[in-house]
Amino acid sequence: MHINDKTNNKPYQPSAERYDHMTYNRCGKSGVLLPAISLGLWHNFGFVDNIENARNMLKTAFDLGITNFDLANNYGPPYGSAETNFGTILKKDFSSLRDEMFISTKAGYDMWPGPYGNYGSRKYLISSLDQSLKRMNLDYVDLYYHHRPDPETPLEETMLALADIVRQGKALYVGISNYEHTKTAEAAKILKELKVPFIIHQAKYSILNRWVEDHLLDTLEANDLGCIAFSPLAQGMLTDKYLKDIPKDSRAAKNFTYLDTDVVKQNMEKVKPLAELAQQRGQKLSQMAIAWLLTRKQVASVLIGASSPEQLKENVLALEQPNFTEEELQLIDKYSL
């Protein structure tokens, strides 16, 4: 009766070889090993997206050895929907695999109306995580981030909230994102005194955006913290997409988020010689950009997004050619700095 059933309702059986080819890196000096490539759910996992495609991407990621899945309270759209869809897929396909997964979420940006739905107060961070856990049907997350620094709330309040979240069993580890180096050092000092497992900083980092090299990477190393790099492809600029022109259906053409046509045009002078170098290495530009980040000793993982299982597989191929000659590294610096 079900011979011609082409639906996606068969029980998911993960690949028996899922840990054979992925590289796992220690995050700072913690006990956590992260896959060299992690999957972010910022785009393509909301209610406006195809949940079967999202489901297939998660299965593909797990089969490739990707164990770290990165969310935030307001990922969607609409806000919260990425977590809800993730929770639905977890229940359907991954219920017996929870302990093989490293699941993270965040709070720090706009989430709900009023004075308690943004930034870094104790009220916001604890309330937001409670909501996230309900959406994902989880008792705890492996990692909870404060998503951005709060210029008004005392850092001690924010860090104490993270500490209490760990002590309540709602998160195993904590991290921060988008903090500059002095605030990172202050946060590390507070959390060390509170004996909280603070292990990671999530930073925007790519060949075209190297702000973390100005003190932050050194600060992470000095405080035994790892780095996970987000936006490694500079929102698509470090791919083949814009080498010839700006496609009408692209993010840049739609002035989507932080990317617009002017930004793309300004960067193409750097990107084109980088693409030629990648071709000489036998890689796509996107693969070279990911591999380059992993040459940084502080970078435990590179956080990628994907719109399809095929795109995910293509980016993971970056791990097949991880080494660079000194000349190649110098050329990348020459073209990008």
Give a description of the structure.
The chain is 36% helix and 15% strand. It is of the alpha/beta class. It has an 8-stranded parallel beta barrel with strand order 3-4-5-6-7-8-9-10, surrounded by 5 helices. It has a two-stranded antiparallel ribbon with strand order 1-2. It starts with 23 loop residues before the first strand and ends with a helix. The mean pLDDT is 93.
Record field, number of beta strands? 10
**Helix-strand string:** EEEHEHEHEHEHEHEHHEHH
Indicate the structural class: alpha/beta
Number of helices: 10
Backbone shape: globular
Q: Runs with pLDDT <50, length 5+?
A: none
Rounded radius of gyration (Å): 20 Å
Biggest sheet statistics = 8 strands, parallel, barrel
Q: In angstroms, what separates the terminal alpha carbons?
A: 62 Å
For the largest beta sheet, what order do the strands appear in spatially? 3-4-5-6-7-8-9-10
Arithmetic mean of pLDDT: 93
Helix % is: 25-40%
Which percent range describes the beta-strand content?
A: 5-15%
Question: Which helices and strands appear, and what pairs or packs with what?
Answer:
Elements lengths: L23 E3 L6 E3 L1 E4 L10 H13 L4 E3 L10 H13 L8 E6 L14 H15 L4 E6 L8 H13 L3 E7 L3 H13 L4 E7 L11 H7 L3 E5 L30 H21 L3 H9 L5 E6 L4 H8 L9 H11 L1
Parallel strand pairs: 3-4, 3-10, 4-5, 5-6, 6-7, 7-8, 8-9, 9-10
Antiparallel strand pairs: 1-2
Summarize the structure.
This protein is α/β, with parallel strands linked by helices. It has helices at residues 51-63, 81-93, 122-136, 155-167, 181-193, 216-222, 261-281, 285-293, 309-316, 326-336; strands at 24-26, 33-35, 37-40, 68-70, 102-107, 141-146, 171-177, 198-204, 226-230, 299-304.
